[in-house]
């Protein structure tokens, strides 16, 4: 099977993004992916049936983040998603003949080099791979083609014929599909789709319905189950899925599907797991009749675990714990069952002692044609010094400075909570930040400070100067390129508006109000040519939670909105390009790319990095993943597109938790019935 798989080529014409204009910008964009340095997933498997000494086998190679596996039909090889080499792609693990069930053989096979099943282009999210039963077609989710409107998901199901590389989109135009599952005969694909209404509320409110369509061409698309996600076929007429009930519990359900000449319909739907604990992401297989593997969050347990439920007729459902006896203190995600019904796979953190070298800057491939390089940094609010040699970033808490080539050490220059960072244009080694809690109300004590590091990394004389005095939530300082002024936001009028003060001596030497109104203006950035200040604001709907990007001249004229992702949309953290003609920003413009409950370690999984010309045209998506990307900045300094290591080992791996959408609040008393806070 390997040869046709490796020979797979996409038909570029179909998937190529529309050619954007190249803006003559260059330089480097650096951003953060929340928590990414704290987890490294691998795919593992355990016996599906209880056994006295279950041997957990690692099926992936301990490199990068590997997740959402699926067994290939007729073999124990595993298809999976990995973000190695700077973009998400699909891989086939060379593992595992049924005989190779010893840990050593499995590890040797897993160590073999991997080639992606799909070529690098297009740069897009690829997710939930599976093969048709005859092994001829790879079916998967991709974000290769933009949605027609802002805040609509780009996720759609594609099929690639492996012998020819011929690729077709199976999802109907104008809708998004997640979590595809191919039926045992190969004739049908079931998906979770937010439907034509799209995404209206918060991440935890994302509801999907289950549609079924033909694997060959996406035809006969039919809504089969209202309110359900993550379908999995047990046989040609039985689909398991998850649904959140009216109290808030996720449960697993079974639907009987009938196919008639008139189309498909669900003839019955029954709940399999009772309320009282969360059960989601079911996996069934014709090879394991009467069994369904699920992930659960049970009260009293801090972890998501894989359990197998015996749902064969006439008995009370019996539960069998798969992962808790083996790795009690870890989250286990998104199970899948081998074709012969003997093993259940899942992903979890690979734990300590993994093979990754700690990265300071991870090169991320972005959809071309690029004139800049793109990096993820292990920290928030990164900014480059104006000679490109140093990067400041915050650790929430702590403010750090590193050399951008990875030499030297990560210096902590402030230990408390500080955000964000920006460098003075004229005085070398002077950084502006604000000190106090983030995401706080207008009256919270936060002040803008400048921190002087001295000229080079040997200088240990770090001094700090407070520039604002009243603590009225003064934050997000950004200096003018002539070195004279700093723009910042302040809550001193009881609303957050923008002000400009003396850069060296602070507000004591003069302050001027730039914006005024009963709303929030924040996250300001002064353009390198001095002409504009970009900022995020909810002035179009004060207090409504929706932010858009605006610009204003430093003298207060010329105010205009640059980019907005629509009602309820969040577009934040603008930063000018070196030529002042574009902005990089973070936004939910492309909505979410996976069912959030299957990807729970991201608080705002819709966060992606985009650029836009300052006239509002030419919006380009730079990142394609289901992680939370944010706080970008842009420097004229061009960093070679390759990973930059660092001398310090990152700590605290895999310390994330399942997120807030698992909480259940009693509607009468407001008390938590179940809490899984982040
Ligand atoms: C991908 O990354 C691996 C290490 O993770 C490296 O050995 C390999 O050369 C890279 N491949 C490409 C095509 O860059
Ligand atoms: C440290 O730096 C400050 C401000 O740059 C300066 O006034 C002070 O003399 C320096 N102290 C030492 C010991 O170098
Ligand atoms: C305000 O600044 C802009 C940009 O520098 C300039 O074009 C404009 O003439 C200024 N307007 C006033 C009233 O000073």
From TrEMBL:
<feature type="signal peptide">
    <location>
        <begin position="1"/>
        <end position="24"/>
    </location>
</feature>
<keyword id="KW-0732">Signal</keyword>
<protein>
    <submittedName>
        <fullName>Uncharacterized protein</fullName>
    </submittedName>
</protein>
<dbReference type="InterPro" id="IPR011659">
    <property type="entry name" value="WD40"/>
</dbReference>
<dbReference type="Pfam" id="PF07676">
    <property type="entry name" value="PD40"/>
</dbReference>
């Amino acid at each position: 099977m390997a040869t046709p798989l490796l020979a797979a080529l996409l038909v570029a014409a179909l998937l190529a993004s529309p050619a954007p204009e190249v803006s003559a910008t260059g330089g480097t964009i650096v951003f953060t992916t929340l928590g990414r340095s704290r987890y490294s997933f691998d795919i593992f498997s355990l016996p599906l049936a209880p056994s006295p000494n279950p041997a957990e086998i690692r099926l992936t190679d301990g490199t990068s983040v590997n997740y959402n596996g699926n067994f290939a039909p007729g073999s124990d090889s595993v298809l999976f998603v990995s973000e190695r080499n700077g973009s998400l792609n699909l891989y086939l693990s060379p593992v595992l003949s049924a005989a190779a069930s010893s840990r050593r053989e499995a590890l040797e096979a897993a160590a073999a080099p991997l080639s992606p099943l799909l070529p690098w282009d297009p740069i897009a999210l690829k997710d939930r791979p599976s093969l048709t039963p005859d092994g001829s077609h790879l079916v998967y989710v991709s974000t290769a083609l933009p949605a027609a409107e802002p805040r609509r998901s780009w996720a759609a199901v594609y099929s690639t014929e492996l012998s020819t590389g011929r690729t077709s989109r199976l999802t109907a135009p104008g809708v998004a599909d997640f979590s595809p599952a191919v039926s045992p005969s190969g004739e049908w694909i079931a998906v979770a789709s937010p439907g034509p209404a799209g995404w209206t509320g918060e991440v935890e409110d994302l509801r999907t319905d289950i549609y079924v369509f033909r694997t060959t061409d996406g035809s006969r698309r039919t809504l089969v189950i209202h309110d359900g996600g993550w379908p999995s076929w047990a046989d040609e007429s039985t689909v398991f899925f998850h649904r959140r009930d009216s109290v808030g519990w996720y449960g697993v359900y079974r639907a009987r599907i009938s196919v008639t000449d008139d189309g498909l319909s669900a003839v019955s739907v029954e709940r399999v797991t009772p309320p009282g604990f969360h059960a989601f992401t079911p996996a069934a297989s014709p090879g394991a009749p009467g069994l369904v593997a699920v992930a659960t969050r049970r009260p009293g347990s801090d972890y998501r675990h894989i359990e197998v439920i015996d749902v064969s007729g006439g008995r009370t459902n019996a539960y069998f714990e798969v992962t808790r006896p083996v790795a009690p203190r870890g989250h286990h995600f998104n199970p899948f069952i081998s074709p012969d019904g003997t093993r259940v796979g899942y992903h979890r953190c690979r734990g300590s002692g993994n093979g990754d070298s700690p990265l300071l800057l991870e090169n991320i491939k972005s959809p071309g044609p690029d004139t800049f390089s793109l990096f993820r940094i292990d920290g928030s609010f990164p900014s480059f010094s104006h000679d490109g040699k140093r990067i400041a970033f915050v650790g929430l808490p702590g403010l750090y400075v590193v050399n951008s080539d990875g030499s030297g050490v990560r210096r902590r220059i402030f230990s408390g909570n500080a955000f964000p960072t920006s460098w003075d244009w004229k005085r070398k080694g002077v950084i502006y930040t604000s000190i106090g809690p983030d995401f706080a109300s207008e009256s919270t004590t936060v002040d803008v400070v400048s921190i002087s590091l001295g000229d080079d990394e040997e200088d240990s004389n770090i001094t700090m100067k407070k520039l604002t005095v009243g603590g009225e939530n003064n934050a997000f300082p950004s200096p003018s390129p002539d070195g004279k002024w700093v723009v910042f936001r302040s809550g001193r009028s009881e609303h957050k508006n923008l002000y400009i003060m003396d850069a060296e001596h602070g507000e004591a030497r003069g302050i001027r109000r730039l914006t005024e109104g009963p709303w929030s203006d924040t996250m300001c950035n002064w353009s390198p040519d001095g002409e504009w200040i970009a900022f995020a604001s909810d002035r179009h709907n004060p207090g409504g939670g929706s932010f858009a990007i605006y610009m204003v001249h430093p003298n207060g004229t010329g105010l205009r909105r640059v980019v907005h992702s629509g009602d309820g949309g969040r577009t934040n953290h603008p930063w000018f390009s070196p030529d002042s003609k574009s902005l990089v920003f973070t936004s939910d413009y492309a909505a979410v790319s996976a069912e959030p409950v299957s990807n729970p370690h991201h608080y705002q999984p819709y966060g992606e990095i985009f650029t836009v010309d300052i006239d509002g045209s030419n919006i380009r998506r730079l990142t394609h993943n289901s992680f939370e990307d944010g706080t970008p900045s842009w420097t004229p300094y061009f960093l070679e597109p390759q990973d930059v290591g660092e001398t310090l080992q990152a700590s605290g791996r895999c310390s994330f938790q399942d997120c807030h959408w698992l909480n259940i609040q009693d509607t009468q008393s407001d008390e938590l019935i179940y809490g899984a806070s982040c």
